[in-house]
């Protein structure tokens, strides 16, 4: 007799092309669909990519508020979702705001409650609000205890330290790699030329960045650097992949600089890897990262990468990364150092050996999820 699928709830995902959401969708695409069923819960009003999820046979649950905004309403709505009877809840957590989801999952008898640490600071644009968020985070972290979940995952050691603190023994935390479908990221000269032709940048020196247009990603600094780069290299263009609340402000800066014809805003895209093929250098001046999955992706397509010290050293899988402090002249000089080109080489084997092949890493998650059946048998 065929056993019933293990039901997994991924929460929260957002209407964004950020790393956490993209990874959640990617996990569903690669997990064994004969054994596991994924559903997703979000506090976003509407997911632009909802139909893709529904077409894959998953459910999307919409929640009208976060727990910290209206605990009573959140509990009412989240309880109704949990009544479906999930075996696993996978909680994607950037920083602590409350423990309502964890407590409710435990009350509902969810067998596997997995907390996944994804960041190393609060990504909030307003200085005062960010300070308040960090105060709440630190207070919650002190109150956090091992019995609030069954499993603890993190994308890196710094992310584990930030979210779990000393309360969770390090041997209880699994570093789960944000792995890739390497077949999609292999450097491809033909694809590169097609993408550059589509974007009308065939003869350009292309600096690229991927990510939410938020405080964390520090794109104002990148625009300052690019303004100086394009003065010294007339073929320079800046390719910005993603969207976010800072996009209008960034567009205004571009207009003030008078470089509208040299900066391309693509918005959120599903095929980040194809756009990366078109780039010549990947510039990532982020203020902080749990890992920086886009840096792994950039290395996978053979790009030279310039990163801030906000990117954990664990993201360095090849020799294509240069870490720099956030000093404008250093970034300008380093970017321009690649303007004459370099030999782009395939890095698949290096990425795979480092543990970032999704076909292997997904087995780690499948094993954890399957522990719900082990508990039922006991």
Topology, pairings included?
Blueprint: E1 6-13, H1 19-30, E2 36-42, H2 50-55, E3 60-62, H3 71-82, E4 88-93, H4 100-107, E5 112-117, H5 127-143, E6 151-154, H6 157-164, E7 173-175, H7 182-185, H8 189-198, E8 205-210, H9 219-232, E9 236-241, H10 247-257, E10 263-267, H11 272-278, E11 281-284, H12 293-300, E12 304-308, E13 321-324, H13 328-336, H14 348-353, H15 358-377
Parallel strand pairs: 1-2, 1-4, 2-3, 4-5, 5-6, 6-7, 8-9, 8-11, 9-10, 11-12, 12-13
- Measured as a percent range, the helix fraction is 40-55%
- Which whole number gives the mean pLDDT? 94
Secondary structural class: alpha/beta
Rounded to an integer, what's the Rg over CA atoms? 21 Å
How far apart the termini lie comes to 20 Å
Question: In one word, what is the shape?
Answer: globular
Q: How much strand content do the residues show? A: 15-25%
State the order of secondary-structure elements, H for helix, E for strand: EHEHEHEHEHEHEHHEHEHEHEHEEHHH
For the largest beta-sheet, the strand count, sense and barrel status come to: 7 strands, parallel
Helical stretch tally: 15
Identify low-pLDDT runs. none
| Strand ordering within the main sheet | 3-2-1-4-5-6-7
Number of strand elements: 13
